[in-house]
């Protein structure tokens, strides 16, 4: 038998343990908030119990030892021996944190326990009634030098119904030493009265040899209580006296009614766990299929024989199948945003305690699904926004009272679909942005010389400026060395955008718009000098034809054009990427007005081709990183088109302006 | 080769059990709680059921009771996966009609030895 390598199950163990911890945390917070849902404690217990069992099985002894103590405490609560109070919840919440760290360390292959975990373990153990019992059972000392065992075994009539089978047990005994059995048929009824599923025969068994008692007991451990059993040591090799036991009345029925514990049905969503690389491969394959399909469509457009009707119908079907397949495959990567939202009840609770503010968290749209890779990267920016909202957005309890507002501030986290995007809003009902403080800070930081003539939007934009940090007092909570500029950059890297809306005295709302997926984008195709470029649709404001008269040249070779009431820089794709033979006259081409990182610019291209979905291929993986290009895609004719990185171009532009 | 139903809400534990038993040539089906196990057992006759005790929706004890109420599962071996810290669960499982138990943590060899014990 090949050895089973347990390491292959570690990933699954860590994943499910982290899910268990999240469930535990959510249930503890619900208890903390005063919920009396009886199922909560079962959820918490089950999670701790599973983690302990898995940790012990897969060799993470420190985690197993820690969760064992937590489980003992939970067992007392579950069985009603202990009431759960705020102190217990606090201790258990800290345990969740500790176990999370211990799991991380275990995954990294370093010892999981440290001073903190040991201290908490002692605190938990002290809480558990009396000392924590050692788990090792009493080891039975092996009897030295026995000659053998006499065993009188009379199964109760229902024994066979429990799935136990005397014959198999005798085989186990026979494997221990020389074995004899004599069947006792005294209780055998007449054939007519016999129930085929009942046991009537008893046995006198003899086992010869120096066999430890524990090994004999182990054979009978499952039927203890389901039979009459006497095991006596053989002093000599004389035959033992025949058994004298009278047939016993059937003792109890195996399934006597007992109090059935009510288990609330919990419509746990079925989930799958698939390696991301496998999914990526699948997505790639579907991408190829999309290309093939558009190739065929193009072929159909070019040929006009009369027999093409069926071919076209087939193509229509192919198109539909492809789309459905694509949608379902993309769906595999989609996870509900609750995976990220889950951490906020705890965060908000801890923060509001620390800052002594009353905050009610309103989570909405938790089932909204996001691409896994987007989901993983959106957590940190959201945490930052939430910290900011509680720290700076919401006023102190006293201030709120003075302003005639409800003492408890509201923080709303909401996710929803809008068009082809996912929108996540972080909204507080605090004081709103403080215009004077922001302008003052910007001047102090050298970002501005005066606040005159700035619109409210301009002021809001200032908080996203690199090096800007609000707050009269930067607390350790929202500080953390990360500014709003990092939040915006992280979201931009995901192909999304951040907008801010603030009303004085009413609150501030941050709106993050994210693409549904990173694997496919909707783009506008444009040609420049015979090459095709793709501009992500989400970044496009509009496309305009610009007359040469409305272009202004500025020092350093830059060009500006008038768009509504602003002057926007023109970026010629041909200059940015060095392609010869592009149209030069501004009136001969098209300017696509795009927006990224809160700034706008005009992309000058020869002409627009159309709109299409593009399967994003990494340029970095196949060639190298090119500034201003976020990736490439394969067009219907097999040629490669580059996808323009709008945020990157905006950054380049602002660097040029600064230079 | 036996048809075995492995029931555990923990995916890692379940896949360890299933992987080990499949490696020994058994035909293993998995279920993640007692209710799904009962549904699976109604659709197909298994030679052995291995089930965790603590599970959401329907726990292992209730599952044994349900299975034993089915005519075709009267004498089929059902083993509970219990833990050392809860000896009382063994008795609870037995009272519900379980054949025996396997104490966690167990390694693949112990699992195969115990399964060998009931399959003969």
Number of strands of chain A: 22
| Fraction of residues in helix of chain A | 25-40%
* CATH structural architecture of chain B: 3-Layer(aba) Sandwich
| SSE order of chain B, one letter for each helix or strand | EHEHEHEHEH
Q: For this structure, what is the CATH class of chain B? A: Alpha Beta
CATH homologous superfamily label of the largest domain in chain A? Histidine kinase-like ATPase, C-terminal domain
- Could you say what the CATH topology of chain B is called? Rossmann fold
Tell me briefly what this model is:
The complex is a heterodimer of chains A (659) and B (120). Chain A is of the alpha+beta class and 659 residues long.
Descriptors:
heterodimer, A: alpha+beta, Four Helix Bundle (Hemerythrin (Met), subunit A), Alpha-Beta Plaits, 5-stranded mixed sheet, elongated, B: 120 residues, alpha/beta, Rossmann fold, 5-stranded parallel sheet, 5 strands, globular
Describe the fold and architecture.
- The complex is a heterodimer of chains A (659) and B (120).
- By secondary structure, chain A is an alpha+beta fold.
- Chain A folds into 5 domains: 6-127, HPT domain (Four Helix Bundle (Hemerythrin (Met), subunit A), Up-down Bundle); 148-233, Alpha-Beta Plaits; 276-333, Helix Hairpins; 336-515, Heat Shock Protein 90, CATH 3.30.565.10; 520-658, OB fold (Dihydrolipoamide Acetyltransferase, E2P), CATH 2.40.50.
- Helix content of chain A is 39%, strand content 22%.
- Chain A has 19 helices and 22 strands.
- In chain A, the strands form 5 sheets. Chain A has a 6-stranded mixed sheet.
- Chain B is of the alpha/beta class.
- Chain B has one domain: Response regulator (Rossmann fold, 3-Layer(aba) Sandwich), CATH 3.40.50.2300.
- Chain B has a 5-stranded parallel sheet, with helices on both faces.
- In chain B, helix 2 (34-43) packs parallel to helix 3.
- Chains A and B meet through helix 1, helix 2, helix 3 and helix 6 of A and helix 1, helix 3, helix 4, strand 5 and helix 5 of B.
